[in-house]
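note to self — DONT lose this again. spent like an hour looking for the file last time. sequence + predicted structure for the chain T wanted, 228 res
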Amino acid sequence: FFVIIILTPDAFAQTPQWEFMGLAGEIINDITIDNSGNVFVASWTGVFKSTDNGASWIFKNNGLEIAEALKLFIDFEGNIYLGAIGFSNTGCGLYKSTDGGEHWAKIADTLNNNPVNTFYDITIIPNEPGGIIYVSNYYGVYRSIDNGVTWQSTNYSNPCASNIGINRNGYMFFGNGCASWFGIYRSTDLGLNWVRHTFLSVEDAMVYLRDGSVLAGCYNPNLGTFGI
């Protein structure tokens, strides 16, 4: 029996299957999970939470005044941050929940008192006490070294920066898929200054590998092709 198993490693191979888990009709912008296994979804109508691995979903918009939820991030203490598109007549955009999404409080609007309050991305590097909070909004990339009390602008002052991250060598990157600013940008000084290093359009997907490499899902406007 064991000889058969060794000689036929594909004997029990199965075709991967995907199961529909609800939220029909929602445009899903982001998915994240906390240390307790709760799943959070950012969608075009707001935030949903599942405590049973996606079998059921609960709408968690208490305190939110947003048009669309774009990006979620959970810090080392379990606090949840939300980057969103706000309504034109309210100063909304960046929210925080300290109780698992039950209540949300606004922690920043446009950061510079301008009218558009769209936040594309939020992350904390490193995700531990003393980490720097980085956000991207319609007016550029900002960072905070005091847990969001005050914000510092960087030299990038345009929209659409996404997937802000850092590799093991200390280089930071973000991608951009908007026509006037598309590309992959790099910072060597913890996000204070950014330089565009490629004119590939990043289509919402970047991942930072343990060996220091960065993978990006891109569109090449010169060739008219997509790829990684």
